[in-house]
Amino acid sequence: MPEKSEGLCLYGIKACDTMKKARTWLEEHGLSYDFHDYKSAGIDRAHLEAWCDEHGWQIVLNRAGTTFRKLDDAQKADLDQARAIELMLAQPSMIKRPVLDLGEKTLIGFKPDIYAAELAAKN
Question: Which among 5, 12, 89, 116 could bridge 32 via Cys, Cβ 3.0 to 4.6 Å?
Answer without folding.
Answer: 5
